[in-house]
Amino acid sequence: RPTGVKRAKSSILKNDPSKKPCTATANMVAKFTRLILLQSNAINSLHVMLRDKRSTHVQFKKYADRLMRILAEEALAACTVEFSIVWTPTGAEFSGLRPNSNICAVSIVRAGDALLEQVLMCEPAVSVGKILIQRDESTAEKLPIVYYAKLPPRMSAFERVLLLDPMLATGGSVMKAIQLLLDAGVAERDIIFANVLSCPQGLESVFQAYSQIRVVTTAIDPELNENKYIVPGLGDYGDRYYNTT
Ligand code: URA
């Protein structure tokens, strides 16, 4: 058995990860009503593989894709607008929110493209937008700059806009992207930001600037380090996913 791997006691195997949220997580969930934190045993064990620094590129990609598929389904579920009652083949009624395909999925290149792929696997016909934002390393503040943006015309006609970026660190890039969507006519409350891993600093900044958006995430880690990486985190998502380390 590799170092650091222990056999789980049956009490841990039965454990529900949502029972013991860490303080940062609990504080964020209590503070922001438009924050949706996804929690399940599947999500927890996929996170173990993503966060393990020994995971190879192939392993990282496999588990990231599985986790992002869950995230994509939940983010799409957050885009629903229509309640529907249907009849099942047994003659009984079933009710719920009907999947909505009048949406636009906008990825923040490059890591957001991996999440976009999972959204398109679920809903192949959605319209797609792309935004490339990078930090200007020449300024002390390292301000994010929009290098490229291609959005469909008439953005306000979509019922929901899904903004996709797996990591929410300082929030600089996603705030720039949200502003771009607003400038294109999207209503703030129609924006749903889907991300794999967030942290309090990023959530605070984003919700302070844009209180009407919704955020769907699969984990909230406590802090950022001096290089603005999320801790404990998982390293650079794009580099690990695309094998460019
Ligand atoms: N982007 C990443 O890929 N990782 C972090 O920890 C923060 C931002």
From TrEMBL:
> Pathway it belongs to?
Pyrimidine metabolism; UMP biosynthesis via salvage pathway; UMP from uracil: step 1/1
Question: What EC identifiers does the entry list?
Answer: 2.4.2.9
Q: Which GO terms describe its biological process?
A: pyrimidine-containing compound salvage
According to the UniProt entry, its GO molecular function terms are: GTP binding; uracil phosphoribosyltransferase activity
Using the UniProt record, name the top-level EC class of this enzyme in a single word: transferase
Cofactor dependence: Mg(2+)
Q: Which UniProt keywords apply?
A: Allosteric enzyme, Glycosyltransferase, GTP-binding, Nucleotide-binding, Transferase
- Domain Phosphoribosyltransferase, residue spans: 38-244
- Which region is the signal sequence? none
Which family would the database say this protein is a member of?
Answer: Belongs to the UPRTase family.
Q: What is this protein called?
A: uracil phosphoribosyltransferase
Organism (species): Thraustotheca clavata
Q: What range of the intact protein is shown?
A: 83 to 327 of 328
